[in-house]
Amino acid sequence: MIFIMKKILYTLAFMAFLVSCTGQYNVQGSSSVSSLDGSKLYLKAIKDNELKNIDSCDVVHGQFHFSGTLDTVRMANLFMDDQSIMPVVLEEGEIVIKIDNASQKVIGTPLNEKLYDFIDKHSQLDNRMNELAHKQSQMMLEGIDEDEINQKLSIEAEKIAKEEDQLVTSFIVENFDNVLGPGVFMMITSGYRYPILTPQIEDIMSKATPKFKSDPYVSDYYKTATENEARMQGLEPDGTPAKPVVADSAAVNSLPSVINQKADSIK
To answer: Are 51 and 217 in contact (CB under 8 A)?
Structure first.
C-alpha cells in the first residue's frame, strides 16, 4: 500500500513538473486604426501544412489581448478575418503589439524585436527602391536623356537589390536554428506561383543547418522546387526523361502561403 501511495505521489509530482515547464504567451495589443475597433482578431499558425487558429479576441476601444499555454516557440500571424495584418513570434514574456496607420510593430521579447528590426531595415530598402520612380520623373522633367536616366537608375536599383539580398540571406542564416529563419524563408518564397530555385535560395540551402532543412515548410518547399527544376530541364527527379505535364503549373504548389502586408515586398 505504501509503495502504491508513493507511486501515485511521484506521478502527481511529475505531472506538476510538466505543467510548470509549459510556458505562457501573453500579448497586449493597442490600435489607433478605427476600422479595427470592434473587430475580431485571430492568431494563426501553420500546423501540419495547414493554417490553423490558435487564439482569438475582440478589439475593444483600441485594446486587445491574447494569452495561453505555450508548448514551443512558434511563428504566428495576426489576422482580421482572412486578412493577414502582421507576423508575431509567440514566446514567453510580455509581447506588445502596436498598430497605427503608419506602422505595425511587435516589441517586448527578444525574437519579436529581432524580427521587427529586420522588417524595418527591409522597409527602408523598399522605400529607397520606390524613390527611384520619383527620381525618374524628376530627371525627365529636367530634360535628361531617357537612356542616361535608365542607365543611372538601373545601377542604383541593382545596388539596392544586392543590399536586400544580403539582408534577407544573412538574417535567415543567422536564425537557421530558431523560428525566424524558416519564418522569413516562408515570407520570401510564398509569393511565387510555385516553388522555384533562385540563386538566393540555392545559397541559403547550401549553408543550411540540419534543423533548418528539417523544418516542414522548408523541407517541402525545397523538395518540390528541386523536382520542378528537374522537370524544367526535361528530367524527372530520378533522372529519367520527364513526362509531359498537362496540369497548370500553379497546381504544383501545395505549400501554404502565409505572408503579411509588411513582408509583401520580400521576394
So the answer is: no
